[in-house]
Design a protein that fits this description.
The protein is mainly beta. The protein is 6% helix and 55% strand. The chain folds into two domains: 80 residues, Immunoglobulin-like, CATH 2.60.40.1120; 627 residues, Maltoporin, Chain A (Beta Barrel). It has seven helices and 41 strands. The chain is globular, with a radius of gyration of 26 Å.
């Protein structure tokens, strides 16, 4: 028996670790960005070599026998803008599939040389956008391969710290950001979602190994995106390998997982992944507020393309999460409650892409999203219920976006979407001793809302240097029964050919109030929150691989949910930032956010890449007494440095250093807290104090091995390298009768591996 086992191990080691081939391949497909039809005969070249090929009758290409290494792939076609795809890893046991969409070149330039660029500028993505591909998402240091943590490195985005998935864009709250995957709306990209849409955990729902590309819009966004005030993320999932079965296994900080992809037939493919956590084992190491978070998720995409004109895809995103805080854990961080939060969410959707002609194509999706949440917390002394919410949500969505090329210098985008939302809320909350007259809030109600919208955007090239995008969105819902008009405009003027652009955008954005507030029948009829956003930006190409962006902006909010006065509860919390349930909520809240941002992006055209960004901003609201106060995440300034060095495919070193101002908080009245035996705040000083500034260094080292039958990636990270004590908040300790600190995690070494075969 021992001999058999030894023989098996020897054979397995020989199978994996034998001498690898020294060559690899790259494959992809070239399409016309305007109509999604294949471009036949497009030139595809490995830059700085003589290796290349042309695309076939369906736009596919394959370049074989490329020596191992990192390359830039250049794609060109007469009458179209040339694209450069940098940082392509050529290895023997896998390959990158490049989905290329070339845009027609409408500007004829005589005697002017335009330097090639690694950044895309197009009328297809008319608003400013920051894009991340799969490899960029994977290797960002200190992000744990989480989409929201990668986005948090941008100057327009503030983080609540490493323990949470929430993000605040340009002073907005964590519920003001939307995401779609392959034209299908995703209610949340995070595990541990709360009733108002915020995250309450460290783990994201999206497996970045499934992602082909993420386009993130924070400086305004097109009319085709709605019901969000601050930002939108447009995610494209990869299609499965159409030639052979491939797999990828990962063991890392967040858990372990496996991905498999391959063909179903000559016209259909699949890609699927499953992940599970062991965070409950290391919860204490990351200071997870005394809790034990755990999760698992399953994601899949099936694609069927009967011909070049029709593509059907099925998307499944399913995840479950559990956060369990025991009595001892609650006492440790100053909480008076212990209990658990259990979530399950799933989205199933079908998207149909149809090419109508050389000028038009459309995406039509239908989807169903469900969420089941059960939160139950007890008093640490009496074991009586102090908070309970059971939420069962069912959302049916229909969305269609049409793209039409009117002429060589003009395009139109138009369509509609509709959402039917049924949510059953069973809510109970025991109020604190400091609340007057009312001891508890309780309701059991089904909230049914229907939202539908129509939108269009006209894109026009004027005077060869100016691109105009003007759009309108009309939203309606069955509880307001009014027209919500959202005009939006974007002007992009080229000051210097291929070098410098001046961009102005202005728009109106609407978002429904959280359903949990609507469910409380004591609230007056709530309105959709409205935001006006204006920005002016300058973009300058420092080099073909380096871009500088400077933006100034202002956002004004009205119709935000807020308490009518301080008589009963003495709590001026801005209810779009944090879930607070009281009776009598009204839509009278106003807020303002303005700021200045700077961003320098360096693509990996050479051995290094990086991002340097910072912002200065101020985000305030006006409370029920007309007093201007800080919103919960008004850090005032943010600064991030991200950089990496990779001289070859064998290893890579990268760092991230983040710095932002202290988080506003309300000081604790220690004497009153001791007397009441619970935390009492100076609410007249709401959010007037600030925690110490946050800063932390993350280091990531990656080593790659090309084996005979597989590619192995080993990585090692150090989170909070110099062990900075970053304070998240303060609390009243009932045990010690003093004020304690809740801190983010101390220095943590993180190791993991991935295997591709």
């Amino acid at each position: 028996m021992i001999v058999k086992i030894s023989l098996f191990i020897s054979l397995f080691i020989g199978f994996l670790f034998g001498q690898p081939d020294s060559i690899g391949i790259v494959k992809g497909r070239v399409l016309d960005a305007d109509n999604q039809l294949p471009l036949i005969g497009a030139n595809v070249m490995i830059k700085s070599t003589t290796i290349g090929t042309v695309s076939d009758e369906e736009g596919y290409f394959s370049i074989n026998e490329i020596p191992m290494g990192d390359y830039t792939v250049t794609i060109s076609y007469m009458g179209y803008k040339t694209q450069n795809k940098a940082d392509i890893w050529i290895r023997p046991n896998g390959y990158d599939f490049l989905n290329i969409k070339l845009e027609s070149s409408i500007i004829q330039i005589d005697d002017i040389t335009v330097e090639e660029s690694y950044f895309e500028r197009s009328m297809v993505k008319e608003y400013q956008v920051v894009s991340f591909n799969r490899d960029e998402l994977r290797r960002y240091p200190g992000t744990g391969q989480e989409i929201t943590r990668v986005i948090n490195t941008l100057p327009s985005v503030a983080s609540v710290g490493e323990n949470r998935q929430d993000m605040m864009v340009r002073g907005g709250g964590p519920t003001e950001n939307g995401f779609i995957i392959d034209n299908i709306p995703i209610p949340s990209v995070s595990h541990f979602q709360q009733a108002d849409g915020r995250s309450n955990g460290p783990v994201g729902l999206i497996n970045t190994d499934m992602v082909e590309n993420l386009d993130f819009f924070s400086n305004g966004f097109s009319s085709k995106y709605g019901n969000k005030l601050s930002s939108f993320g447009d995610i494209t999932y990869r299609s499965g390998n159409r030639e052979k079965v491939e797999g990828y296994g990962l063991l890392g900080m967040g858990g372990l997982g496996y991905l498999v992809e391959g063909p179903i037939s000559d016209r259909s493919t699949y890609i699927a992944s499953y992940r599970m956590s062991y965070l409950d084992i290391i919860a204490d190491a990351i200071n997870a507020s005394g809790g034990m978070p755990s999760y698992d998720d399953f994601q899949a995409k099936l694609e069927f393309r009967p011909n070049i004109y029709n593509t059907f895809s099925l998307l499944i995103v399913n995840g479950g999460s559990l956060y369990d805080r025991d009595r001892d854990g609650a006492i440790e961080v100053g909480e008076t409650e212990y209990g658990r939060l259990k979530n399950h969410q799933m989205t199933i959707g079908i998207n149909y892409k149809h090419i109508w002609s050389k000028r038009a194509y459309s995406n039509t999706s239908i989807s169903n999203s469900i969420k089941n949440s059960d939160a139950h917390f007890l008093n640490i002394n009496s074991d009586s219920t102090v908070f309970k919410i059971i939420e069962n949500t069912d959302v049916r969505s229909l969305r269609q976006v049409n793209h039409f090329k009117l002429g060589p210098e003009s395009k139109m985008e138009f369509g509609f979407d509709a959402h039917i939302n049924d949510t059953d809320y069973n809510y109970y909350r025991k109020l604190t001793k400091s609340s007057l007259f009312i001891n508890e809030i309780q309701f059991d109600r089904i909230v049914s809302t229907t939202n539908y919208a129509a939108f269009f955007t006209l894109k026009k090239n004027l005077f060869s240097r100016l691109i105009l995008s003007a759009g309108m969105r009309l939203d309606k819902n069955d509880y307001e029964k009014i027209n919500l008009w959202s005009p939006r405009i974007n002007l992009d003027y080229e000051l210097a050919r291929g070098k410098t652009n001046l961009i102005f955008n202005s728009g109106v954005y609407h978002q429904n109030p959280p359903g949990i507030y609507i469910a409380n029948e004591t609230s007056n009829k709530l309105k959709s929150v409205r935001a006006y956003q204006h920005s002016l930006s300058l973009e300058h190409m420092i080099s073909s691989s380096t871009k500088l962006s400077i933006s100034a902006y202002q956002k004004k909010y009205n119709n935000s949910p807020i308490l009518p006065d301080a008589t009963l509860h003495n709590d001026p919390t801005f209810l779009f930032d944090e879930l607070r349930m009281y009776n009598g909520i009204v839509s009278n809240g106003t807020a303002v956010s303005d700021g200045l941002e700077i961003l320098i992006q360096k693509k990996k055209a050479e051995n290094f890449y990086g991002l340097v960004g910072g912002s200065i901003f101020n985000s305030t609201f006006t409370d029920y007494n007309g007093i201007k106060r800080n919103r919960n995440h008004n850090y005032r300034y943010i600064f991030n440095i991200v950089g990496g060095y990779r001289p070859n495919t064998d290893w890579e070193l990268s760092i991230r250093w983040s710095y932002f101002g202290g988080r506003p908080y309300t000081p604790i009245n220690l004497d009153a807290s001791i007397l009441a035996d619970e935390q009492i705040l100076y609410q007249n000083e709401f959010n007037e104090e600030k925690t110490p500034d946050y800063h932390s260094l993350f280091i990531h080292y990656e080593k790659r091995y090309n084996l005979k039958r597989a590619n192995l990636i080993l990585f090692f990270e150090i989170w909070n390298t110099y062990n900075r004590k970053n304070v998240e908040n303060y609390f009243y300790s009932r045990v010690n009768k003093d004020i304690g600190e809740i801190v983010y995690f101390s220095t943590i070494p993180v190791a993991g591996l991935g295997i591709e075969f």
